[in-house]
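Hey, resending since the last one bounced:
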Amino acid sequence: MSVPSDVVVQFLIQRRSRLLGYAWVIVADEHAAEDVFQEVSMAAVRKCDQIQGPEHLDRWVRHAIRLKGLEVRRSRRGKAQLLSPEVLDILEKSWAGGGTATEGDRMDAMRRCIGQLSGPARQVVEMRYGQGMKSQKIADTLGRRVETVYKTITRAHTALRRCIEDRLDTGRGGL
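The structure tokens again:
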């Protein structure tokens, strides 16, 4: 059973901010994220006869945003990369799982959790994702071994994932 175009449009309107947020995480640019969202939206409407139900539509749109966003990011080499593919996988699993948290809840949790990172971890995360520096460059800049930078980034990813999950877990009072 295919999805009618009006259902696709309604889906895109209802989830616009969430999908834009996902695109923004990938491309790290508000205008580029909007372009990605619009291109994927037009493609979804054009291909609605190939989409088999609401769950397939949700997966298809997220996958298309990821592919288009990565394409845009590759075309802008030299610009800062916000999050690694591993972190995007974590976000994809989180967003695919749904839950009762709103997009605002998720963004608030991310901001608060980044703020809770230790100073050195926050500095390394900012250098890696905010400034797009490679791990070796971070190590050289901070006078640390590259292995230390890798461990710091890995620990920061783990801490952020746990913190965000805890904040969004209303059953344990995370919000």
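The chain has two domains: 1-80, 99-175.

Sorry for the duplicate.
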